[in-house]
Please model this.
Amino acid sequence: MSLAVFFIYGTSAGLSRVIMLTVPMQTRPFALALQTLGLHLFGDVPSPVIIGAVKDSLAPHCGIVFGNDTASGCGGADLGHLNPQCAASPEDVRGLHLTIWIAVLWSIWAVVLWAAAFGLLLRRARRIGEGAAASGSG
Model:
């Protein structure tokens, strides 16, 4: 799990580095702002809603139920609990497992995109190094 978190959060640093090396200096702040906006707009803002919708369709009985039959915290407020029917249904348990697998496999895209950004960075660095070597030897 910690390795997955490392790669997921490591992607933004690699992408920021690529932007810093590929975008002209005058437009770098705007490019970095767009990157941050895109990461939030397409990443951490909609992902809980999407994963929740997938879970609701694959494991419909695994929701939160409210009632006075459980011990409640927060001054007596009922915060809800997992529907007991969830564990009793093999289909719902499979649905929860499938939901987790979908989230994990989707996270692999972060690693793939990180590798692509790193490859782009290396290619650009080689091109800059070859240009500097060619101009210095002339």
